Structures
1.
Amino acid sequence: MEPNGHSFLDKVIGIVKEETADNVPLIDFKHPKELEAILSDDLDISKPTNDGELERTVRKMLQYSVKTNKSTFRNQLYGGTDPYGLAGSWIAEAFNTSQYTFEVAPVFTLVEMKILKHILQLFGIPDGDGIFSPGGSISMLYALVAARFKAFPEIKAKGMRNLPEMVIFSSKDSHYSIMKAAHWLGFGTDNVKIIRTNDLGQMVTEELEETIQKELALGRYPVLVNATAGTTVLGAIDNLNAVADVCEKYGIWMHVDACWGGSLILSNKYRNKLKGIERANSISWNPHKMMGVPLQCSAFLLRDRGLLHEANAAAAQYLFQQDKFYDVRYDTGDKSVQCGRKIDAFKLWMIWKARSDTGLSQLTDHVMEIAEFCLSAVSRKDGFRLVTETVQCPNVCFWYIPKFMRNANEDDEWWDTMHKITPKIKELLTLNSRLMVAYCPLRHHKNFFRLAFTFHPIVEERQVLDMLQSIEDCGEMVTLSML
């Protein structure tokens, strides 16, 4: 063991490069108890070890880790990291400071302010405000706190007593974080009113308005409508202008969960898919998803400048003293729900500085074009069937129907069998280290695959065809006796 660990640190880049090389498998999958047994000695921390032994242990652990940098990692809505972002992440970690005051993060404070200003401009709310959060679920908390405080500022001191019962509106396909936020903040999950979606996964705004009217008639207070720009499964984008019209009519806070689809704002060609987002009161966007900023990097934006500070400030005198020797308006930490806060903005700034608006627009265009190519390829291949025939975000959803299931009566029993076939194909793909791909049911649909594409690694058309071929190959391995 080195006294300061610097010699081991010098080896880390080499270890990472070697353990994520092209010839390294996507995953060497082991079941939990099996992996525990394999790594039992390596996981032990009861005694010191020298750097050589530590390197062997780290390499062994990376052997069994998922290589998210590979094109065949399509399991989530994130993937490989942008190399410039990774560089920014390492620098940020090495300087090990917090974002709460200018005093300890002078340059990083200016970076955060600059990047937020640029993002706000892109989303069409140039005079707004924002903050970086750990992820979309925390951004949802920010949105609900801001909306509630705007409506009832006395809540900060007096709590929710004597206030009307507040209700929230969200689509059936929206992210589950709205339910967790309703629970954490005391609204209650029963007060999240779920609005039906159409076949494309978009909120039915006529039903939204009808539901708002019903809740008003019952004496409840509509506090927030949660629209989605890029649902988790289908990648659906709600009709944001139509939702904004309803919100303006009834004076309701409009939040747009653009954690996934918000990256389309980077493209001159595809940003029109987000038309109406500039009318939102608040927006959440996760650059750590499609864009490939290293986890974690999430932006929460809102139209009302100063509201974040009013709603969240606690004015801790040991940290946010008002008699400091510099301009304390640059201390941004009191508008955060966190105290210690990572300098996530630097990772995003590093990418933007290296690639510019032009480079990021090109990456967005490419990822959407690859998704459209995939959709077209799936529509032509025998045994594949699309769930929806539209690309809104770079999500492509489909079933693979093995030959023994084709040309049969597609009754409930047939679909129940298909429901079991999809996860079995996924299992074979994973165990053979060919592809990690998401699957899920949705509403009346039985389990289907979701291929979602991200900026990094840059995927080419031949790789998409290879992914589909892997699904077909493993699909033809499935038999009824396996299910």
2.
Amino acid sequence: MEIENQTIVSEFLLLGFSEEPEQQPILFGLFLIMYLVSVVGNLSIILAIGSDSYLHSPMYFFVANLSFADICFISTTVPKMLANIWTQSQRISYEGCLTQMHFFMTFGALDDFLLGVMAYDRYIAICQPLHYATVMKSGICVLLLAVCWILTSSAAFLHTFLMAGLTFCAENSIPHFFCDLTPLLSLSCSNTSTNQLMLYIVGSMVLTAPLILIVISYVCIISAILRIPSNSGRWKAFSTCGSHLTVVSLFYGAAIGVYLCPLSSRSAGKDRIAAVLYTVVTPMLNPFIYSLRNRDMKGALGKLLLSKKALSY
């Protein structure tokens, strides 16, 4: 009986947001629009930066990589959810679930680290402008990006490896719209103490290390801005950081609430809402927050659109 009750599941059921049939078309249309806006917006940013030599600078290098990470990040979760709604199926294979979880953690953590690196870039630009070209030269930028990839991929692989060693019994319904780490842990009939310990240790490092870098950078930035004599100069310097702080607050507020709070103190509904904020809403808003308010980026996007119109004629 014990062996029979611990039959390894071959698939999971993603319950999503609602099982009511009349709500499915609304959810499908809403998430499809947000997904398309996110992909088109971030892809436009990448193409604009790549096509305009004036934007080939460290700041825009990281903006382009953030846009790429956002496209991958949102593409790990939303397309599968849309496919399930369209086919009226909640199924995802065991292998597909672990794969989705792995890439979700990889690109989510990459977003996190890139936000930290971008804060460091702003710190050098505002606090040490004379050394900016030397400190943030192309080789250093590529090295920072490579370190981000290595750290995030390693953390995701560790969690995936530990998850693959767990046993899942008869219960296979995930009260979420994608395969996330914490809902999967709650379904396992194995001892998950090691997994939960690594979740708090690695999760704390992945979330807090970039956050500490961001806080230290902005303390120095604000201190430098306050020393600028003119109001216009202070506003110009701070305007380059306000958008970044907005996204950091939204991303970290939701992520910390999901991954660092004890499992017993959370509800599935709140987890889903928080997950939508940093998996769907943040990638969708990033092109607008980071780039469309920037005069140089607006000019590059305008040139890109004009060149496409010229080619169409």
3.
Amino acid sequence: MLPLLGAELIQTPVQLYRYLLRCCRLLPSTAMRQHYRHAIRQGYNSHSDEEDPERIQLIIQRAVADADWILTKYTKKK
């Protein structure tokens, strides 16, 4: 299960960044949204110089899987 539609179309780091920020909007509290937006920004900055296409795809796959896990964790606690 993917958190939002279009996750399978992500090919670039900028697309991933925008996708993850859209996922943050689904989190239940403002504090969570701020925390994860900050973490997404830090991750984007730390990997911004990555040039290996295979490594970029691994980062994208892992980030989408992590977003799925986080959204599942927090949205099922109703």
